[in-house]
């Protein structure tokens, strides 16, 4: 039987992971709902409550911001979550035959 001998522990240099590895937080993305002339305000409030878990008051305030300023930020998420939210909103809007659009843009770091 052959025995393999390993070098002593002290001769193997171990990297200091705390110094060598700098983990960057993921980029974040803002979800924006865009104003249009056809989607009912009640539907926008419903979307904010159902898909973004906003309260009634928060939903109304955001809906008014969308109506008066043309858009509003509904949340800030990692890329994967933001992409999923955009798809959910756009699918939900199409399903209910409304032209409400949702987009995402990279948040300022």
Describe this structure in words.
- This protein is of the alpha+beta class and 109 residues long.
- The protein has a domain at 31-106: 2-Layer Sandwich (Ribosomal Protein L30, Chain: A), CATH 3.30.1390.10.
- It has 4 helices and 3 strands, in the order αβααβαβ.
- The chain has helices spanning 17-20, 41-52, 56-69, 79-95; strands at residues 28-34, 71-78, 101-106.
- A 3-stranded antiparallel beta sheet has the order 2-1-3.
- Helix 2 packs across helix 3 (56-69).
- The radius of gyration is 24 Å and the shape is elongated.
- The model has no long low-confidence stretch (mean pLDDT 90).
Compile the SSE list and pairings.
Elements: H1 17-20, E1 28-34, H2 41-52, H3 56-69, E2 71-78, H4 79-95, E3 101-106
Antiparallel strand pairs: 1-2, 1-3
Helix pairs in contact: 2-3
Which labels suit this protein?
109 residues; alpha+beta; Ribosomal Protein L30, Chain: A; 3-stranded antiparallel beta sheet; 3 strands
Quick recap:
This protein is α+β, with helices and mostly antiparallel strands and 109 residues long. Helices cover 43% and strands 19% of the residues. The model has no long low-confidence stretch (mean pLDDT 90).
The gross shape turns out to be elongated
CATH class of one domain: Alpha Beta
Q: Biggest sheet: strands, sense, closure?
A: 3 strands, antiparallel
Q: What is the succession of H and E elements?
A: HEHHEHE
End-to-end separation: 60 Å
Strand content: 15-25%
Structural class: alpha+beta
Low-confidence stretches: none
Q: CATH topology of one domain, which one?
A: Ribosomal Protein L30, Chain: A
Strand order of the largest sheet: 2-1-3
**CATH homologous superfamily classification of one domain:** Ribosomal protein L7/L12, C-terminal domain/Adaptor protein ClpS
Count of DSSP helices?
4
Multimer state: single chain
Task: Give me the Rg, rounded.
Answer: 24 Å
> How much helical structure, as a percent, in the residues?
40-55%
Query: How confident overall, as mean pLDDT?
Result: 90
**Can you name the CATH architecture of one domain?**
2-Layer Sandwich
């Amino acid at each position: 039987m052959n025995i393999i001998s390993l070098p002593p522990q002290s001769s193997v240099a171990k990297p200091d992971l705390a110094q060598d590895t700098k983990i960057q937080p993921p980029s974040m993305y803002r979800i924006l709902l865009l104003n249009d002339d056809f989607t009912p305000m009640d539907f926008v409030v419903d979307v904010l409550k159902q898909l973004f878990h906003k309260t009634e008051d928060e939903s109304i305030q955001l809906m008014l911001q969308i109506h008066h300023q043309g858009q509003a930020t509904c949340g800030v998420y990692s890329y994967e979550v933001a992409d999923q939210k955009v798809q959910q909103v756009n699918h939900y809007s199409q399903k209910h035959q409304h032209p409400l659009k949702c987009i995402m843009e990279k948040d300022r770091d």
